[in-house]
Amino acid sequence: MNQTMQTSVPDGVYPLTEDKPGKGFSTFDLGFVALFVLASGAFMLWGLDYTNHTQVAIFVLATAFGLFMAFNIGGNDVANSFGTSVGAGTLTIKQALAIAAIFEVSGAVIAGGEVTDTIRSGIVDLSGVNVDPMHFVFIMMAALLAAALWLLFASNKGWPVSTTHSIVGGIVGSSIALGIMLSGGDAALSLVQWDKIGTIAISWVLSPVLGGLVSYGLFTLIKRHILRYNERMLEELRRIHKERRQLREEHKGAFERMSDIQKMSYTHMLVRDSEALDEDDFTAEDLETDYYRRLHELRQRKSALSAHRALQHWVPLVAAGGATIISAMLLFKGLKNMELGLSTLNTYLIMGMIAAAVWMATFIFARTLRGTSLDRSTFLIFSWLQVFTASGFAFSHGANDIANAIGPFAAILDVLRSGQIGASAAVPAPAMIAFGIALIVGLWFIGKEVIATVGHNLTKMHPASGFTAELSAAAVVMLASTFGLPVSSTHILIGAVLGIGMVNKQTNWALMKPIAAAWVITLPAAGALSALVFVVLDALF
Asked: Domain of life here (predicted)?
C-alpha cells in the first residue's frame, strides 16, 4: 500500500522547485553573497587584531579555508537535516533557510562551547613527534580545505556524507604527510589511532541500520494506527458523499414526476423538515419526507464515524513522545556546553513538563481541525510536528557539528595568537557568527541537490513520514550517545529515510548504492586531498 495522503500538499505547491533560482542571480542570491562577503570581511578585520597581525597571509588563507568548509557543511550536512522537511512539503527552501539561520546559528553561538578539541575525535597522536606550530597550522588548513572540497563534490552529486568523517580523514591525511616528512612511512602510520578508524568503519553499517530499524518500527505504528485508520475513514466519507449525491439525483427525478399540486404539498413538507432539523428537541420521527429521513440517516452515519479520532487520540501521544526525545537531545546534547547546573531529576522534570505541554497543545490543535478535511488535517498537524523536530535538530546541530569547521580553525587561531600548540582552543563568538552565516549561505547555494536526494529521490515523503524520520534519527543519536556507540548523524538520518521507504515499499535502492560508496570513500578521499594540500602549503610557506 502506498503511503497515505501522499499528494496532500496544500495549494499544489511543490517546495523543491518553488524557490529554485533560474538562470543568473536573483536579488535573494545577491543578498546572500553580500551578507557572506560582509561577514567574512568583518571577521577578518577582527581576526587580524585577535592574532596580533601574526602571519597575515596564513591567517587570511586559513580563514578562507574555514569559511569554505562551513559553507560546504551547510550545503551537505544542514541540507541533509532539512531534506525531509522540504521534501515532505512542510517547508519551502526559504522557510527551511529561515529556520536553519535562526536555530543553527543560535545553537552555535549559545551552546557551541567556549573551547574545542584541537584534534577532532583524538584520531591522531602527535605527542611522539616534534611538531612545529606552523606545521600544525598546515595540518589543520589542509584538513579544512580537503574536507570542504570533498563535501562540495558530494553535494554537487546529491550525496549526503558525513562531515565528521570528512574532517577526520583530512586530519589523518595531513598528519601522515607530516609524519612521512619527519620520520618516514612506518612512523607516520603509527601516528593514527587505527582503532578509531575501525569505529568509523563500523558506523558505516551500524548508523543506517539503527536509524532504519527505529524508523521502520515507529512509522509502522503510525501508519497502522493513524494513516490507515484515516484511509478507512476517507473511503467511508467518500461513500457517504456518493450516497448523498445519488439521493439528490433520485429526489430530483421523483420531484419532477409529481403533479403541480403534489409539488406544492411536497415543497411545504420539505420546508417543515428543514426547519425541524434546526430545533433542539428534534427527533427522526418529526420528519415527514423520505428525502430528509435518508439525509438525516447519512448525517448520523457521518457523525458516528469519528473521522478525526486517530488525530485526537494517537497524534498527541506521538507528539508527547517526540517532545521527550527532542528535549532530551537538547538538554543532554545541544546544551551540554552551557553547564546549566541542572540535576538529573531537574532535567527529567523539564522533559516531562515539555511533553505534557506538547500533548495538550497537539490535542487542542487536533480538535480545532475537526471541521477541516481529514487529509489536510493530517498534513497540517504532522507539518507542525515536523517543524518542531527540525528546529530541535537544527539547534543541536549548530551546537555540536559546527565544531567540524570551527574546531580546526580555532586551533589555527590559537597557534597564531599564542605561538604554541594546545590540547584545546578558545572559540571566539565572532568566529561562531561568521561560520554560522557561511553555513546558511552554503545551504542556499549548493544544498538543493542533497535536499532533493533526502527529500524525495530516496523515497517519497509526507509530513508524517518526515516527522518519523527526524524523530527516529534523534532517538538513535541519543541512544548512541548514552551507550557510546560509533555512529554518524548523517548516516542515521539516511537509514531512517530508507526505513520509511521500506514500510511504503518504494525505496530507491539504486540511488543508495553510490551514496553508500561515497560513505566508504569519504575518509580516504579527504585524506589523500589533505596530504596533497599539506605538501603544497609546506612548499609555499
From this structure: Bacteria
Domain hosting residue 111, numbered range: 30-227+373-540
> Could you tell me the pTM of the whole model?
0.84
In whole angstroms, give the CA distance from residue 377 to residue 463: 11
Is 157 contained in some domain? yes
99 within a domain of the structure (yes/no): yes
| Structural contact between residues 224 and 508, judged by C-beta atoms closer than 8 angstroms | no
pLDDT at residue 83, rounded to an integer: 87
The three grid cell numbers given for residue 360, joined into one nine-digit string: 495538550
d(CA 527, CA 165): 10
Interval 283-323: pLDDT, tens: 777 788 888 888 888 888 877 777 788 899 999 999 999 99
Q: Is residue 362 part of a domain?
A: no
DSSP secondary structure letter of residue 332: I
In angstroms, the CA 390 to CA 103 distance is 9
Residue 421 is assigned to a structural domain of this protein: yes
Place of cell 541512544: 479
Q: Is 424 helix (H, G, I), strand (E, B) or coil?
A: strand
SS3 state of residue 304: helix
pLDDT (tens digit, 9 = 90+) per residue, 234-254?
888 888 888 888 888 888 888
Of 206-210, 268-272, 456-460, the least confident: 268-272
Length of the chain: 541
Phi first, then psi: give them for residue 342, nearest 5 degrees: -85, 135
Q: How many distinct structural domains can be found in the chain?
A: 1
Nearby residues of 523 by Cβ (< 8 Å), 6 or more positions away: 165, 166, 168, 169, 172, 197, 200
